[in-house]
Amino acid sequence: MTQAPVIEAKNLDLTFQTNDGPVHALKGVDLTIDKGDFVSFIGPSGCGKTTFLRVIAGLEQATGGQITVNGMSPDAARQARAYGYVFQAAGLYPWRTIAGNIKLPLEIMGFSRADQESRVKNVLELVDLAGFGKKFPWQLSGGMQQRASIARALAFNADILLMDEPFGALDEIVRDHLNEQLLALWARTEKTIGFVTHSIPEAVYLSTKIVVMSPRPGRITDVIDSPLPKERPLDIRDTPEFLEIAHRVREGLRAGHAYD
Amino acid sequence: MRTLVPILTVIAAIVAIWYAAAIFMNAQWARDQAARAGTELSVSALVADTWSQDRPRLPAPHQVVAELWDTTVGKKITSKRSLVFHGWITLSATLLGFGIGTGLGILLAVGIVHNRAMDMSVMPWAIASQTIPILAIAPMIIVVLNSVGVQGLLPKAFISAYLSFFPVVVGMVKGLRSPDAMQLDLMRTYSASAGQVFWKLRLPASMPYLFTSLKIGVAASLVGAIVGELPTGAIRGLGARMLSGSYYGQTIQIWSALFAAAIVAAALVGIVGLIQRVTLKRMGMAR
């Protein structure tokens, strides 16, 4: 690959100053993410996986080291609309319809009316919510709301999709379904995806690259390039290859974390 | 039916207690009159008398209702004896004051939410302003404004605004701050400006809080307008009716003015509630 990496972190540090003294949320993080990668960040609470995603998004400032997004600083990348961000909760505005919610970033970024309409239609189809544009959020199930929030993040066609435990609050059946849909969406749009999760099966099922992290200080303990094919039916999770990667992730988590 | 029966029971109980209290409180006068005339009063005559005196200590409900009917439907609305006429005087001051108070309250809340210096400096003053008894400050407002040539509706409206801006400030500050960190972060990922965050997130999110405040504010406005009429010797308005009623011992007049004020207040709160329901429904926030 001669292409420049999409996200490149070198010796990244982030220390929060708190009343109890400094907290090392990230320490010496080195990571390269290439275009089209699906990268999962997995680790126990406090390992800095969400913080790292927020640094990529320019929502937190690193206190040391270097990070570039599309070759720019995270702030500049954000202003260049480099990424869409999906939070843990759907966070749809209750006073806007689903279509209105998806238009929110488009209005802020100054897209024309006609352009807004066609983009809303496109992304609603992408997340399988065509025909639900006129509904209000409370009329949709939790899984559908989260899909709408993914549509909102996709609406302005950023190359990078950052997702912070987007399916964490959903039950396992809905989660499986959304995982399948997310893979299909990734295959169609060829986006680069950063995905924070607590779930080992979810990380292994979705990712081309799994980043295992551990806390105190937050750091990367293992980076696993998945040998699984891009085409992944749900029952790939019963194959030996899948279980082997899952095992390696589990080992990585155990090594980096003392359960005392 | 299910809700109507308990409501009617409570009203019936209140009316019964009221009639009983009227007998008790007005009996002394009836007995004194009878003694002066050298006659004996039977129990039924005593009761009948206590419910039909011209200047009772406590007028009976039917006397208040009759007076209300007579002074609203029975008089031309241009008449100085018409409660509709007096009610309108007070209502116009209330509405103007409510408008000023709401506008001021929203502006202050926007300032408090967006400016740290205002947050630290304005809120304590707003709270202090409400600890001063309105009865003490109302005459001063009227005198000061009168000395600079402002008379009539405006001084009363200012007192009314003085009472109504506070719930609006408190409610709006709470409402404008109601979006959580995640929603604000979402706006940051779009590199939204402060103005966009305000118009697209903070303001719509504050609407339920605003309407709750407006309900309190509109009732406080009416109280303010009435209080504004009391210390000035005003001759028009519901407050003036109460005041002149107390000068001349016209208790029935006082009570009917009180009830007129209560009815106006209930109607105002009801109207705000209606606007709230329609607005929130159109915004999709009511289910």
Number of strands of chain A: 9
Strand order of the largest sheet of chain A: 5-6-7-3-8-9
CATH superfamily annotation of the largest domain in chain B: MetI-like
Order of helices and strands of chain A: EEEHEHEHHHEHEHEEH
Percentage beta strand of chain B? under 5%
Report how far the terminal alpha carbons of chain A are from each other. Answer: 43 Å
| Total helical segments of chain A | 8
- CATH topology category name of the largest domain in chain B: MetI-like fold
Which band does the percent of strand residues of chain A land in?
15-25%
CATH architecture of the largest domain in chain B: Orthogonal Bundle
Number of helices of chain B: 11
Q: What's the overall geometry of chain B?
A: elongated
Instruction: Give the biggest beta sheet of chain A.
Output: 6 strands, mixed
Number of domains of chain B: 2
Can you put this structure into words, describing what you see?
- The complex is a heterodimer of chains A (260) and B (287).
- Chain A has 260 residues and is α/β, with parallel strands linked by helices.
- Chain A has a domain at 91-157.
- Chain A is 36% helix and 25% strand.
- In chain A, strand 8 (209-214) and strand 9 form a beta hairpin.
- In chain A, helix 3 packs across helix 4 (113-126) and helix 3 (98-108) runs parallel beside helix 5.
- Chain A is globular and about 50 Å long.
- Chain B is mostly helical and 287 residues long.
- Chain B has two domains: 4-58; 83-282, MetI-like fold (Orthogonal Bundle).
- Chain B has helices at residues 4-37, 43-50, 61-72, 83-114, 116-131, 134-147, 153-176, 181-189, 194-229, 238-247, 251-282.
- Chain B is elongated, with a radius of gyration of 25 Å.
- Classes of the chains: A alpha/beta (260), B mainly alpha (287).
- The A-B interface holds A 57, 59, 78-79, 81, 83-85, 87-89, 91, 93-97, 104-105, 107-109, 136, 138 and B 182-183, 185-192, 196, 200-201, 204-205, 207, 283-285, 287.
